[in-house]
From TrEMBL:
CDD domains, per database record: HAD_BPGM
Gene expressing this chain: pgmB
Stored Gene3D superfamilies: HAD superfamily/HAD-like, Putative phosphatase, domain 2
Record InterPro entries: B-phosphoglucomutase_hydrolase (IPR010976), Beta-PGM (IPR010972), Beta-PGM-like (IPR051600), HAD-like_sf (IPR036412), HAD-SF_hydro_IA (IPR006439), HAD_sf (IPR023214), PGP-like_dom2 (IPR023198)
Protein name per Swiss-Prot or TrEMBL: Beta-phosphoglucomutase
Sorted UniProt keywords: Carbohydrate metabolism, Isomerase, Magnesium, Metal-binding, Phosphoprotein
Annotated catalysed reactions: beta-D-glucose 1-phosphate = beta-D-glucose 6-phosphate
Superkingdom per UniProt: Bacteria
Family under the similarity heading: Belongs to the HAD-like hydrolase superfamily. CbbY/CbbZ/Gph/YieH family.
Cofactor needs: Mg(2+)
Organism of this sequence: Romboutsia faecis
MF annotations from Gene Ontology: beta-phosphoglucomutase activity
Amino acid sequence: MIEAFIFDLDGVITDTAYYHYLAWKKLGEKIGIEIDEEFNESLKGISRIESLERMLKFGDKENQFTQEERIQLATEKNEHYKELIKRITPKDILPGIIDLLEEAKNNKIKIGLASASKNAIPVLNSLGVIGYFDFIADASECKNSKPAPDIFLMAAKGLNVNPKYCIGFEDASAGVDAINSARMYSIGIGDRDTLCKAKFVVKSTEELDFNLIISKYNK
Ligand code: B16
Ligand code: MG
């Protein structure tokens, strides 16, 4: 029987993925790397510093910055990102999410968060949904980032639920891999081809119907 829902944040509960994109794009302009939305797809679910490394590689600049400069660049991106997320209000919750959280609560299903973002708590606060969460895994305590299962396992442990009774929700291919490696049931939200390793894929959060999800899990 299903005991917990574990959510990714960016791209699942709200569309901060777009703000991450804007912040990386601005940093890219400063250091002469032009990124597009297609490249941005490969950064979804990936930690801040690793995203920077991928960007430097993408722009053929992987040998150009010292470790200290890299930390400075990642910090700069984060400062801009923090400015952008100040705009977030409860109106930015993606469609269908509140209904799903309510249904989970009504059915005594625990709710956890497994986001790679170190900004997860302020974002949940701005959205006004933090009260739904029984446990929020701390990305800064997580050694291996997605696609490693660590953050999902940390959430299951915090909820005191066996991973096999958890459903994980993700918009990123690295996140789906993390859920599968944690041996949870994976639900992908987005493009069917990108998320082909998920056990069940929906195009958008609007399609996250509680009964449908439970029936897929029980199959
Ligand atoms: P921060 P998720 C991830 O969040 C984002 O998808 C990814 O683009 C970002 O780089 C990462 O969080 C780290 O975020 O810089 O705020 O610590 O999708 O796992 O909720
Ligand atoms: Mg995400």
